[in-house]
Amino acid sequence: MDWIEFPSLSRGSLRDIRVTVDGTVDTFLGAYGEAIEHAFDPLKDFLIWLEDLLISSPWPIVLAVLLGIVFLMSRSYKIVAGSLFSLILIGVFGMWEDTMRTIAMVTVCTMLAILLGIPLGILMSRSERVQRWINPILDLMQTMPSFVYLIPVVMIFGIGKVAGLIAIVVYAIPPTIRLTNLGIRLVDQDVLEAADAFGSSPWQKLVNVQLPLALPTIMAGINQTIMMALAMVVVAALIGVKGLGQPVLNAIANQYFFMGVQNGLAIVAIAIIFDRATQAYGKRLQKHSEVLHG
Questions:
Q1: Which of 160, 225, 247, 268 is the Cys-Cys partner for 263 at CB 3.0 to 4.6 Å?
Q2: What is the number of structural domains in the chain?
Q3: Structural domain that includes position 58
């Protein structure tokens, strides 16, 4: 009945493959791991600075600044009032410091995702070949189990902030790349032809026409990146990322129902604040775009 069993590699062959791959990775990390780690020192320093700034500054000032940013993005007093209520509850229940750590991590991850994702999205919109190459990579990044991202980053960076930051960015960046590409491709061809008729260079057309018109779609991608980054915070706590994720893991390990729900709701509150502010900003950009088009 051997024909019923699927023909697979022997255990010895699989062991040899694993040993070869792991040995290659170990050799690479031995040669370049320290250089790669030092390359991310400026990012680590910025994250530590922002985290310390949010934690050490007087909470009324931090609260006022956060609410000011929410208002500038949303121009909605309802969203500001909801954000104020949520942040005050977070402070009352003793989660202020962990929340500031989480906000710092998500902010830096989002900034890095924007700096990397938008240029990649523009590149994809410019070239069908590049799009064919990058799309499968994005599919892999979006479908790979989130825990798998922790393995290579821990091997390179060890336990700590940088490993968590890289894992979160890799997990959360695909929406920014995809929707930047989509937004630029959806720009009306008549508008592009008009820009060409006025003698615009490719760079002028990109900066003055395509990117402004694609901004609402790009903002939707950034919004999804923020949501995915917040979802990854709990997973990243497994490799030493401090914030709201660590109490959730502690609650799971010790079966503390209230602690888990309390910190989980704090993550939800932060996610809703980010979501409502960025969505409102995207809608404002959409209205502005429609006014320009007449």
A1: 247
A2: 1
A3: 38-283
